[in-house]
Amino acid sequence: QMPASLLHHRVKHSWNVSGHACGSAAADIAWASLVRPGDPEGFFANAITDMDHVQKLADHPCIAYLDAFDRLSGEPGPIGYAVLAYYLGSEDKALCAHTIDRLARLSAHGRVSARRFASAILPFMLVGTFPSMRWTRSLAAVAAMGPGHRAFARDVIVGLMCFDPARAPRDVGGMVELLYELQLGWGTPFDDAASISCLEGLDGGGKAAKFAKK
C-alpha cells in the first residue's frame, strides 16, 4: 500500500518535486531502464513519482517506463504492479492506452495475476487518487480484446469488491455494472464469498446497489 499512500499524499498536497532521476525525455527514460533490467523495482518507483497526474500530452514521456515490462523474465514486483495500476487510471489518454495494451499482453502470457493486480489498484481506489470510473473504463477496454482478457478483467473487478460498503469508493457503480455485464454468460454462478458480502452491503437507490442486487 506504500506506493498508493505516498502518491496520494503528493497529489493532495502538491509537492514540488524537482528533477527526474531517469530523465524527463522518453529516450532518457528508455536508457535508464537498461541499467538494472533484472531488478527494475527502483526504476518503477521513479515511474510513479515522475508521472504528473493531470498532464495530458500527445506523446507522454512516461510511456517509456512501460517498455521495461517487456524485459521482465517473470511477474512484476509490488512497485511494478503499482505502476500498471496507477497508469491504468491516468487522465492522459495516450499513457492509459499504452498501459491497457501492455496489461493485455502481460495477462495473455500469464505474467500478471488478476488478484495481485486488484490488490495494487485497491489502495489507489480507496484513498480516492482517481475516480473509480477511470479504472472501469480501462478494464472494459481490456475485456473487449477477447475471451481471455474478459476473464482477466472480470477477476480483477472481483478482487476489487472487498471494500467497506459503508465507505464505497466514489463512482464505483460503473464498476459493479461492468462486473454484472462480464458475469453474464459466464457459465458458472457468482460464488466469491468476499465479493458477495461486499455487494450485499451496498444499499440505496444508486447504480452500485442496483447492479449489486442483480
Topology:
Elements: H1 2-13, H2 26-32, H3 41-49, H4 78-88, H5 93-108, H6 114-126, H7 132-143, H8 147-160, H9 173-183, H10 193-200, H11 207-213
Helix pairs in contact: 3-4, 4-6, 5-7, 6-8, 7-8, 7-9, 8-9, 9-11
Characteristic terms for this protein:
single chain; 214 residues; mainly alpha; 56% helix; 0% strand; disordered N terminus
Structure description:
With 214 residues, this protein is mainly α. It has eleven helices and no strands. The protein has helices at 2-13, 26-32, 41-49, 78-88, 93-108, 114-126, 132-143, 147-160, 173-183, 193-200, 207-213. The longest helix has 16 residues, at 93-108. The chain is globular. The two termini are 31 Å apart.
* Number of H/I helices: 11
* Sheet/helix structural class: mainly alpha
Helix content: 55-70%
Number of strand elements: 0
Main β sheet profile: none
The low-confidence runs, each spanning 5 or more residues with pLDDT under 50, are: 1-19
Percent of sequence in beta strands: under 5%
* Cα separation of the termini: 31 Å
Task: State the order of secondary-structure elements, H for helix, E for strand.
Answer: HHHHHHHHHHH
Q: Provide mean pLDDT, rounded.
A: 82
Report the radius of gyration as a whole number of Å. Answer: 17 Å
Spatial shape: globular
Short summary:
With 214 residues, this protein is mainly alpha-helical.
